[in-house]
Write a structure and sequence with these properties.
- By secondary structure, this protein is an alpha+beta fold.
- It has 2 domains: 39 residues, no CATH class; 31 residues.
- The chain is 27% helix and 31% strand.
- The strands form 2 sheets. Strands 1-2-3 form a 3-stranded antiparallel sheet, with no helix packed on it. A two-stranded antiparallel sheet has the order 4-5.
- The longest helix is centred in the middle third of the chain and has 25 residues.
- The radius of gyration is 27 Å and the shape is elongated.
- The model has no long low-confidence stretch (mean pLDDT 84).
């Protein structure tokens, strides 16, 4: 990790044409501005963490649902004319 001291109005330029400018510093924190090409996504870190957590939760939930669905009885339904029988879970 690179750690730099910057004052308001000073900036850091990253590869790919990304410029980070310190706008203001006070007791509440630092305000920064980010200039980047339109194709570069910029997302707050806490949003990335929340999405990753939700994805892990959804994946675990889907696996549990599939396991649970395996215990459901299967009902064979008569096929439409000329088709094969269809298996459906019992409601």
């Amino acid at each position: 990790m690179l750690i730099l001291a910057r004052k308001p109005g000073e900036s850091i330029v990253l590869d790919g044409g990304i410029r980070v400018v310190v706008l203001e510093c006070d007791r509440r924190g630092v305000r920064i501005g980010i200039e980047a090409p339109a194709e570069v996504g910029i997302v707050r870190g806490e949003i990335v963490d929340a999405v990753a957590t939700e994805n892990r939760r959804a994946t675990a939930s889907a696996a549990a649902a599939q396991e649970w669905a395996g215990f459901l009885p299967v009902l064979t339904v008569a096929a439409p004319a000329g088709g094969a029988p269809v298996e459906e879970p019992v409601p």
